[in-house]
UniProtKB/TrEMBL annotation:
Taxonomic lineage from the root: Eukaryota, Fungi, Dikarya, Basidiomycota, Agaricomycotina
Transmembrane spans: 58-76, 82-103, 115-140
Entry annotated with the keyword Transmembrane helix: yes
Protein name as it appears in the record: PRA1 family protein
Bilayer topology: Multi-pass membrane protein
Family: Belongs to the PRA1 family.
Subcellular location: Membrane
InterPro entries: Prenylated_rab_accept_PRA1 (IPR004895)
Length: 168
C-alpha cells in the first residue's frame, strides 16, 4: 500500500471514531425512545413546540439514524438512482485512482479529462432518470413527519425540568 492510501485510511478511521464518540455516544436507549407510556396529545401548539424543541435536542442522534435509514431505503427502492450514483461515484474514483496519464486506444489519445466528460455525459442522464429530487423530497417529508410526530407527541422526561439548572 502506498503512503497516500495509508493516510486516507487513517483519516477515515479517525472520522469514524470521532463520529462514534460524538454522535453515536448520544444515542438514547430504544426503551426510552419508544416509551409509549409517555405519548400524549399536546394541549396546544405552544406545548407541541416546547416538546418538539426539547425532544429534537435530546434524541438528535436517534433522529439522525432514522433519517439515514430512510435515505438508505429510498436508494434501495429506486434501483436506477442507485445504479446512477454507483456509476458516477465508482467512475470518478476509478478514473482518479487508476488513470492519471493519457493513454492510446485504437490510435487515439485519451486523457483523464476525456474520461470524466464521458462519465458525466452518461452518468448525469442516468442519475436524472432515477429521480434524485423526488427521492430527496420523499426523505425530507418522511423524516419530517416521523420526527415531528415523535418529538411533539412524546412528553419530555423529568430531566427536562432541570435542563436550565447548572450544577456546582
Amino acid at each position: 500500500m502506498n503512503m497516500d492510501m495509508v493516510g486516507y485510511l487513517n483519516s477515515a478511521q479517525d472520522t469514524v471514531r470521532s463520529l462514534r464518540e460524538t454522535r453515536l455516544g448520544q444515542l438514547r436507549h430504544p426503551a426510552e425512545f419508544f416509551d409509549y407510556q409517555r405519548v400524549s396529545k399536546p394541549k396546544d401548539v405552544g406545548e407541541y413546540m416546547k416538546r418538539a424543541g426539547y425532544n429534537i435536542r435530546y434524541f438528535s442522534a436517534n433522529y439522525a439514524i432514522i433519517v439515514a435509514l430512510l435515505s438508505v431505503y429510498s436508494l434501495l427502492s429506486s434501483p436506477l438512482l442507485l445504479i446512477g450514483l454507483v456509476f458516477l461515484i465508482g467512475g470518478f474514483i476509478g478514473i482518479s485512482r487508476f488513470i492519471t496519464e493519457p493513454f492510446e486506444f485504437q490510435g487515439r489519445t485519451i486523457t483523464p479529462q476525456n474520461l470524466y466528460i464521458g462519465l458525466f455525459l452518461i452518468g448525469i442522464p442516468l442519475l436524472l432518470l432515477g429521480a434524485p429530487i423526488s427521492a430527496f423530497f420523499w426523505v425530507v417529508g418522511a423524516s419530517g413527519v416521523i420526527v415531528g410526530a415523535h418529538a411533539g407527541l412524546l412528553e419530555p422526561g423529568v430531566e427536562s425540568e432541570y435542563e436550565g439548572i447548572e450544577t456546582v
